[in-house]
Amino acid sequence: MSDTVVTMQARDGKRKRLPEEVASHVRELIISGQVRPGEFLRIEPIAAAVGVSNTPVREGLVSLRSEGFVQLVPRRGFVVAPFTRQDVRDLFWTQARLAGELAARAATKITGERIVRLETILEEHETAISVGDEGRIADLGHAFHREINLAAGSHRLTLLLNSVVQRVPNRFYAAIEGHVAATRHEHPLLLDALCRGKAHEARSLMQQHIAEGADHLVDILEERGLWSRQESAS
Q1: Which pTM value belongs to this model?
Q2: Is Aminoacyl-tRNA synthetase one of the keywords (predicted)?
Q3: Is the pLDDT of residue 2 over 80?
């Protein structure tokens, strides 16, 4: 695990609660394959990486235990819990269904003002790709989806989606070969469906767009040797 100090911030520029910052940081380390199942998570390096004291680290790891990402070994500490290809796909499947429904609802009520914002995001996304700004690429992808979710006007469904999204990595996607190309092609298609008020099309496009992310992630984790070759494909 890298000991590099990186202060985690929410995308709106405000600090998250410290245990949430820790959980977000460790969750991404786990899902992106930077730490492996069975590996113990040392509190001090995590505290240094996030820029917090040891107490929020413990609280963040406890929350990850409730999500099934880590396990507590008595008198030894927290260890990364095993997870399978199907676990990864299940996370994306759930996100895809919720986001698809929100996209369908957005298609029936999106405003001209929000469409202009989505067009601006797409233009900025192209610029970020052209200069290879991976952090900006990821932030703009997040902003695009956020605008659609807000356009749906379904607060409780959006909260449910957010609870799933926080369990799925986002920023490292900009570094995964194929994902940026897919987003570059699919986001304009989504916007077109929204502009035309095509709810069924928007739902289908969104579900496919997100579900494909599972394959990208599974592929990259396989390349990193996360699962043994003897494990049957799930």
Answers
A1: 0.77
A2: no
A3: no
